Amino acid sequence: MKLLTFKKENQILAGVLMEDEHFVLDLTKAAELSGQDHFPETLLDCIKTGNQIVNDIEKLTEWAEANEEKAREAIYEVKEMQLLAPIPRPLKNVFCIGKNYAEHAIELGSKDDIPEHVMVFTKAPTTVIGHEQLIEAHESVTSELDYEGELAIVIGKKGRAIPREEAMDYVFGYTIINDVTARDLQKQHKQFFLGKSLDSTCPVGPWIVPASYVEDPSKLRIQTRVNGEVRQDSTTDQLIFPLDEIISVLSSGMTLEPGDLIATGTPAGVGKGFKPPRFLKKGDTVEIEIEGIGTLKNTVE
Hints:
It is a single chain. The protein is of the alpha+beta class. It has nine helices and 18 strands. The chain is globular, with a radius of gyration of 19 Å.
């Protein structure tokens, strides 16, 4: 199941990708046609209702397949719409985990840079864009724009001081994030926020896959390609701090809420790690593919 947010005729709608992946079912419209009232209007609203919504969407999809003629009004071709980020405007900053793959920490420094504790920074909500939307080059601000392909957690229910053994119960699903970074700003300011928060530098998507549809998120292959060339190629079992620990640490004194996004860290192979560095430039296309999730694609403009 792939849940998405799309724009069609100036309306922003929540949908589910149908089996052949060429069509999308408009969830609100399908619910109306099937006789349901008060179905959540946005994907964030769906997430806020809890994991039961996944079962409701399964039933809606089954209804649409069994009632093809009646459901036709709620089914659109993918090529007719614009995919947005699944949560186009997060309610708070995107949480990001730094240096969470040992080889990435080493490529940006040395073995001494491998962290002993979870490193956390954030990206402003205004950074978020969707699949195939353009990443602004920001040439007046940076000459060192870099890519970082990451598995992202979507929190599904409110929690604080979450024990590790319960942490995965708080996950609604997974998506992909490109943590685009201005390395020179990051270095200049001695902190991550400005270098991580330029507008359009957080592509997210193309959709959210519910947790129940991802067999083992700790063993997913993640690959980043720039203009077709593989730059990053790893698996999520290489994370220094696994997903349950990340959630537990973040929530230790801070409330996590439905719709919160957590980028879990990037593998080795970022542009800054090459000698000489290979930063992004106008016209470059970045594709991040994660097994079982999909492919997020964006071009720098």
